[in-house]
Specification:
This protein is α/β, with parallel strands linked by helices. The chain has a single domain, classed as Phosphoglycerate mutase-like (Rossmann fold). It is 30% helix and 21% strand. Strands 3-2-4-1-5-6 form a six-stranded mixed sheet, sandwiched between helices. The longest helix has 16 residues. It is globular, with a radius of gyration of 14 Å. It starts with a strand and ends with a strand.
Length: 160
């Protein structure tokens, strides 16, 4: 059984005129959201074995709060520059390449790619994911490379 946790980063600050988008940090609200969603994930038994996270500051901060809130190990995280604002196809490719020893994989990334990937994998309407929303999808498979369109089952839809 494989479980994919699709997580949109928590609420970010607006940033300033000359600040690169990737450098926007979480707002105070975003920090509260990340702590709240980590608690909900833990109580649902959705603690990831491994996390793939975008290198944008807001996703890094969200991931660090998740790790602390769920007692994960930083060794369980792969920081990926190519996940920054990635489209659904690129996110799917990253998931399909995950190590098959991982049973619960979290992907901490951005919209619209994360919402589009959830819809693709579930083959059902998933409302655009607001900040810090988690869509947990399961498959009765052994290999991450076997996931495909419309084959996932919705396990949980969590919001802070």
């Amino acid at each position: 059984m494989k479980t994919l946790l699709l997580l949109r980063h928590a609420k970010a600050e607006w940033g300033s005129f000359n600040q690169p988008d990737a450098e926007r940090a979480l707002s105070e609200r975003g920090e509260r959201q990340a702590h709240d969603i980590a608690s909900k994930m833990k109580s649902e038994g959705l603690t990831p074995d491994f996390i793939l996270s975008s290198r944008a500051k807001r996703t890094e901060m969200t991931t660090q709060i998740l790790i602390a809130g769920m007692d994960c190990d930083m060794q369980q995280v792969q920081w990926c520059d190519d996940l920054y604002l990635a489209e659904a196809g690129a996110l799917l490719n990253a998931v399909r390449q995950a190590n098959d020893t991982v049973q619960i994989l979290a992907l901490v990334v951005h919209n619209p790619g994360v919402s589009e990937l959830a819809q693709y994998l579930l083959n059902e309407a998933v409302h655009e994911m607001s900040t810090a929303t988690v869509v947990a999808i399961t498959w009765d498979i052994e290999h991450w490379s076997d996931i495909s369109e419309g084959t996932g089952a919705l396990r949980a839809y969590l919001r802070p």
